[in-house]
């Protein structure tokens, strides 16, 4: 988050805070404070300097809200319109107005998640984490190693957080809202209970308070995590590719939504395989099969799944 402030403070935020919270100076004969009118050569100043904690809190909340929303709308739309198979919307378990419900649920969750994660971002900005700037401080080797450690750390912890959320004593209170979407679309990526989203994001935030991470690398990894979360909800049931033995693909996560107690992993399949919760994708498990049955019954596709062109009335 300090990277975002480093970029946005001189570009936007300094001017915004100078406008809304201008600095006051004693500039009249009464000795009372009055608003300072800067000269054309001096930049505007705010009563809240960059290290003001209230300014930092507001800036973080605005940045996270806008950033998360932009990533969600851009990449969910790209995935939904260019990757997601819209025929899945005919599946018997696809809800009425589901896409709209997923979007509404996501937009309600994001602000609360941002508020709950504010302490972590604030601590980063105020220098309490192990984020660092110069690669030379730890070397190029650690740059690569820290990336691998980041992924293993997140994968293991999120596996167990996710699996524990499926325990009956927790599931109905926290994780059940996300499983409302049996056949999810990319718009379901953030459509969960705010506490669910917050708890599953904890490994990302805690990592930089345990391990040193180059701050630009961390920002990149954090953004990629958000995109990956959208990607695994695209419903793509490609099966048979050798990478599916190792990567927790969209096909794996589609099966998780359908069968509930399988494929808890985030990036890889190793934890599911080791802890006996792995269900590999197979062509016969593709939910598109059921969707096509409905479409055939409606006369929308032929036996091979090809669209049936309706004859124009003469």
TrEMBL record:
GO biological process, one term: lipid biosynthetic process
GO terms of molecular function: iron ion binding; oxidoreductase activity
Bilayer-spanning residue ranges: 58-83, 103-122, 142-161, 206-231
GO cellular component: membrane
Coiled coil: none
Domain Fatty acid hydroxylase: 148-276
InterPro entries (UniProt xref): Fatty_acid_hydroxylase, Sterol_Desaturase_Related
Subcellular location: Membrane
Keywords, alphabetical: Membrane, Transmembrane, Transmembrane helix
Protein name: Putative C-5 sterol desaturase
Species whose genome carries this gene: Pseudallescheria apiosperma
């Amino acid at each position: 988050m300090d990277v975002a402030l480093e970029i946005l403070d001189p570009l936007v935020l300094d001017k915004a805070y100078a406008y809304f919270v201008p600095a006051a100076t004693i500039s009249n004969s009464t000795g009372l404070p009055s608003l300072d009118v800067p000269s054309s050569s001096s930049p505007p100043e705010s009563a809240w300097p960059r290290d003001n904690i209230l300014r930092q809190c507001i800036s973080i909340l605005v940045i996270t809200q806008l950033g998360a929303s932009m990533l969600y709308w851009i990449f969910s739309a790209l995935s939904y319109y260019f990757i997601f198979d819209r025929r899945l919307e005919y599946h018997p378990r696809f809800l009425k107005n589901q896409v709209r419900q997923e979007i509404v649920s996501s937009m309600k969750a994001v602000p609360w998640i941002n508020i709950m994660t504010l302490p972590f971002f604030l601590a980063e900005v105020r220098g309490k984490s192990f984020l660092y700037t110069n690669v030379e401080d730890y070397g190029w080797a650690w740059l690569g190693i820290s990336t691998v450690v980041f992924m293993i750390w997140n994968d293991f912890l999120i596996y167990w957080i996710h699996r524990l959320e499926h325990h009956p004593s927790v599931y109905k209170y926290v994780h059940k809202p996300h499983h409302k979407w049996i056949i999810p679309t990319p718009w379901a990526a953030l459509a969960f209970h705010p506490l669910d989203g917050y708890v599953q994001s904890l490994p990302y935030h805690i990592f930089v308070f345990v391990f040193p991470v180059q701050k630009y690398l961390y920002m990149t990894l954090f953004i990629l995590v958000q995109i990956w979360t959208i990607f695994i909800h695209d419903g793509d049931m490609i099966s048979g590719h050798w990478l599916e033995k190792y990567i927790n693909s969209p096909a794996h996560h589609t099966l998780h939504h359908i069968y509930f107690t399988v494929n808890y992993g985030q990036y890889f399949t190793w934890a599911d395989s080791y802890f006996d919760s792995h269900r590999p994708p197979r062509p016969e498990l593709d939910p598109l099969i059921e969707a096509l049955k409905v479409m055939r019954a409606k006369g929308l596709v032929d036996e091979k799944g090809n669209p049936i062109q309706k004859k124009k009335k003469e």
